[in-house]
Design a protein that fits this description.
Length: 420
């Protein structure tokens, strides 16, 4: 099914093969900078750079698109500079599709001091004022927006739905996200309800501002706007968020797709993603924000998510933690000093085609910069390829078999190593 955007832009989503008895599917997202075959993992270039790796390498390892963070680029170098450069892709020499997130998550997570939202201990805290220990509260939310302190220089800034849209239009990514309040599993049910309504009102304001900016900047490529669904671990709130945002229409402007966001505990990830995707229209793409662990990717795909992004593969690579088919390993472990074979014999990445684990182990010990580069190429390829394989096996009807085989080996391998 293809649909056209309200403003006649080149953005569409076509559903391909459906995974039997589930919400999973393949598809193609078309953007002004090219197509994305889904499901797909989107590498993250937080500050318009995938740390340590050139865009050419990301392309070569099969990365179809890149995601950058509006919050970071707003603070540095400033969205006006990226706009003057011709937009994010042009600025960083990435010719393919780009995404930017709304800044909501960073503003709140860096500001309030929370760490990763997934896998939070829901039983520990039940307060709306909880902040990370020994951390000053750096962000304040009100009904109009968020005031926050820059993590770079301590200067004060304010994001509203309108400002987030203005920043993201200047950054010029193909897919942008509505400004939302990202709650955590620590917030109370009452707070989640109020926050969800606030996010809905912000979503309306985003659509209005997006429509205005799209008209004003009609000489720029069309940018697709995704609404972000919150609602934490509550089924009624998640379903309501999906229905509300799917129905929003501001003078003919509606969301082009949806971001599945916020607090998602690992155990219930599939159930929660399933609630949302069950309500969402099938003719629009869904992006699961900030998820990149192999088992979570399978869960996300099976429950209807089309695209994923996560900093974990590159962040872990820089600390010498790399993926193999038999689980994650750490290259600084003594046993890899004499492994004169690739990190993973089955990997088809540039690193594994040209270098041994022993060489990478040496580079990490010697603190050579290229260690992080080679490990990042491997980890990004590993995850990009894993999701590619999910796509091809949905198409060939072998998805469940592939999942069983992959997860069995990956997690059994990890457990064995931990035991020794
Ligand atoms: Zn490799």
């Amino acid at each position: 099914m293809t649909y056209h955007t309200n403003l006649g832009g080149q953005f569409s989503f076509r559903e391909g093969t459906r995974l039997e008895n589930s919400l999973g599917r393949t598809g193609v997202i078309s953007t002004p900078h090219g197509p994305i075959s889904t499901p797909a993992f989107i590498p993250v270039g937080t500050k318009a750079s995938v740390k340590g790796v050139l865009p050419e390498s990301i392309k070569a390892l099969g990365g179809q698109a890149l995601l950058a963070n509006a919050y970071h680029l707003y603070l540095q170098p400033g969205s006006a500079i990226v706009d003057a450069a011709g937009g994010l892709g042009e600025f960083m020499n990435w010719p393919g599709p780009t995404f930017t997130d709304s800044g909501g998550f960073q503003v709140l997570s860096l500001g309030v001091g929370f760490k990763k939202v997934i896998a939070m201990d829901t039983e520990t805290f039940r307060s709306d004022e909880v902040i990370a220990e020994n951390k000053e509260r750096l962000a304040h939310v009100d009904d109009d927006g968020v005031t926050f302190k820059s993590h770079l220089d301590g200067s004060m800034h304010r994001f509203t739905p309108e400002i987030s849209m203005q920043v993201q239009h200047q950054l010029g990514a193909d897919i942008i996200f509505a400004f939302d309040e990202c709650t955590t599993l620590h917030n109370t049910r009452g707070y989640q309800e109020r926050s969800l309504e606030r996010t809905r009102l912000w979503a309306k304001r985003c659509l209005i501002e997006h429509g205005k900016l799209t008209s004003e900047r009609s000489d720029h490529p069309y940018q697709a706007l995704f609404g972000v669904l919150q609602g934490a671990q509550y089924e009624d709130l998640r379903r309501q968020a999906a229905r509300d945002l799917a129905q929003l229409d501001e003078s003919g402007i509606s969301f082009d797709g949806f971001g599945l966001g916020g607090a998602l505990d690992k155990e219930n990830l599939g159930t929660i993603v399933g609630w949302m995707c069950d309500e969402l229209p099938r003719n629009k793409p869904r992006h699961l924000l900030g998820i990149g662990e192999p088992d979570d990717l399978f869960t996300g795909v099976e429950n209807g998510a089309d695209t994923f992004d996560c900093v974990a593969p590159s962040r872990q690579a820089r600390t010498s933690a790399v993926f193999t088919r038999d689980g994650r390993i750490n290259l600084t472990n003594a046993k890899y000093q004499r492994q004169f074979s690739p990190i993973d014999e089955e990997c088809d990445c540039y690193t594994c085609s040209h270098y041994t684990a022993a060489y990478l182990a040496h580079l990490f010990r010697a603190k050579e910069m290229v260690a992080g580069t080679l490990a990042t190429i491997h980890n990004e390829r590993f995850i990009v390829r894993l999701v590619e394989q999910m796509r091809t096996t949905i198409e060939s009807g072998d998805f469940l078999e592939f999942k069983r085989e992959f997860l069995g080996r990956f997690y059994v391998g990890s457990a064995k190593r931990q035991a020794t």
